[in-house]
Design a protein that fits this description.
It contains six helices and eight strands, in the order ααβαβαββαββαββ. By secondary structure, it is of the alpha/beta class. The chain has a single domain, classed as Rossmann fold, CATH 3.40.50. The longest helix has 14 residues. Bound molecules: S-adenosylmethionine (SAM). The site of S-adenosylmethionine has 18 residues, from helix 1.
């Protein structure tokens, strides 16, 4: 895990959009007149893709350089962008949303704030709205860190009770992280409120 998200995020702005976000955008259709939230937006690569597709975007991240970094990443298309430099534990309100995307970010908060934020983001979904999230599983190398949240499959499944699961993938395998080799246990989920 990087010590400094700023360093990690600085290297992310020009990579391809993450497949989970692309898939959710394809399922959602046009962003015109609709609102997306990018939780833990990092370098802003997915925020930029959402803006380019016509979404209004609220981007949240607690890394202090987020505002400047995002404005650099999105270039001229920032009229529909709201940036909030805020820790997940401090997020008490979110706009009504048609898409909530959280790429490899929600696990980086402890169980109490994860639980509160999850309740909030479920309540903020408009009918027809979608969640697209990566959650970390209990076999992950980082499992046990108290400032993070890890789930078993049943726990992850229960988070999307009442939603239509449109995509579910469980990775449970060795791989590479920014910090070096690790075991990844990641649930990647897209679910829709019908
Ligand atoms: C692994 S990066 C993912 C960034 C981006 N979504 C991506 O896919 O490249 C995790 C991001 O979450 C942010 N983050 C970590 N813990 C956070 C917290 N407790 N509250 C808000 N943001 C947090 C970091 O600053 C970082 O930008």
């Amino acid at each position: 895990m990087p010590d400094h998200w700023a360093e990690y995020n600085a290297r992310q702005a020009t990579r391809d959009i993450r497949p989970l976000c692309r898939r959710a955008m394809d399922l959602a259709g046009s962003g015109a007149g609709r609102t997306a939230i990018d939780l833990g937006c990092g370098g802003g690569r997915e925020t930029r893709a959402l803006l380019e597709a016509g979404w209004r975007v609220t981007a949240v991240d607690n890394e202090p350089g987020t505002q400047a970094r995002l404005l650099r990443t999105v270039g001229g298309i920032h009229a529909a962008l709201t940036v909030r430099v805020e820790a997940f534990a401090k997020v008490k309100d979110l706009p009504p949303a048609d898409l909530v995307y959280a790429g490899y970010s929600l696990p980086f908060t402890g169980p109490p704030s994860f639980s509160a934020l999850w309740t909030l983001l479920r309540s903020t979904l408009r009918p027809g709205g979608r969640l697209a999230v990566n959650l970390f599983g209990v076999h992950d190398s980082w499992a046990g860190r108290p400032e993070m949240t890890f789930l078993d499959a049943a726990g992850a499944r229960s988070l999307v009770d009442g939603l239509d699961i449109e995509y579910w993938d469980e990775e449970d395998a060795p791989g590479m992280a920014y910090s070096g080799p690790k075991h990844w246990h990641v649930f990647s989920i897209i679910a829709c409120l019908r």
